[in-house]
């Protein structure tokens, strides 16, 4: 089966994991201004998240960044995909699949048996790359700062002021 981004690649579009290529201001605009889950995130926070993750971008033939995705990972056991965003003018031509497959098949995470993610409405997008709903949802737990904190004494000393 031909990858959905084959035509783009032939036209000179590229997938890259080079942090130096990232257009950090553009990524900030997408995440902070256009995406509900990361609205209001600062440029500094975006930079930290990009640097602390395995981050990939897709670039058009002129070198302009048209999409981003990152994988929060220890490169050994855990891999969580987050902040997948494609420029609104370039959706529907395979950029999203390219980004997701670029993470799932990346050499640094090739031996990790399972990737997870959270999505409100783009299930079909991830299903196209092989994602399914959680198989054993009863095994998963979450801790939320707004509710869990009440049960969680803080063992870390705070400096006064
Ligand atoms: C979701 C998103 C990343 C998809 O990127 P894209 O480049 O348009 O996706 P592709 O062209 O690679 O499409 C791949 C498949 O996903 C489907 N798809 C794309 N966007 C979708 C969406 N929002 N919901 C459901 N399915 C979607 C396409 O129909 C396509 O299926 P097909 O191959 O059977 O035709 C893009 O729409 C986007 O950036 N949306 C805003 C941010 C967002 O919602 N990100 C996901 C957060 S979890």
UniProtKB/TrEMBL annotation:
Keywords from the named record: Transferase
GO molecular function, one term: acyltransferase activity, transferring groups other than amino-acyl groups
Coiled coil: none
Presence of the UniProt keyword DNA-binding in the record: no
Gene3D superfamilies, alphabetized: 3.40.630.30
SUPFAM superfamilies xref list: Acyl-CoA N-acyltransferases (Nat) (SSF55729)
Record Pfam families: Acetyltransf_1 (PF00583)
Annotated ranges, domain N-acetyltransferase: 1-146
UniProt-listed InterPro entries: Acetyltransferase_Butenolide, Acyl_CoA_acyltransferase, GNAT_dom
Protein name: Acetyltransferase (GNAT) family protein
UniProt organism field: Frankia torreyi
Source taxonomy: Bacteria, Bacillati, Actinomycetota, Actinomycetes, Frankiales
């Amino acid at each position: 089966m031909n990858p959905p981004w084959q035509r783009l690649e032939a036209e000179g579009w590229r997938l890259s994991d080079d942090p130096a290529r990232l257009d950090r201001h553009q990524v900030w605009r997408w995440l902070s201004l256009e995406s509900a889950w990361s609205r209001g995130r600062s440029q500094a926070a975006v930079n930290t998240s990009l640097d602390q993750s395995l981050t990939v971008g897709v670039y058009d033939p002129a070198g302009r960044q048209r999409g981003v995705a990152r994988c929060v990972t220890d490169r050994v056991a855990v891999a969580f995909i987050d902040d997948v965003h494609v420029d609104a003018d370039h959706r529907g031509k395979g950029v999203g699949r390219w980004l997701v497959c670029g993470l799932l098949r990346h050499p640094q995470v090739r031996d990790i048996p399972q990737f997870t993610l959270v999505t409100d409405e783009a299930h079909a997008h991830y299903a196209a790359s092989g994602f399914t709903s959680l198989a054993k949802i009863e095994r998963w737990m979450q801790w939320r700062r707004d509710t869990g904190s009440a049960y969680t004494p803080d063992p870390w000393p705070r400096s006064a002021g």
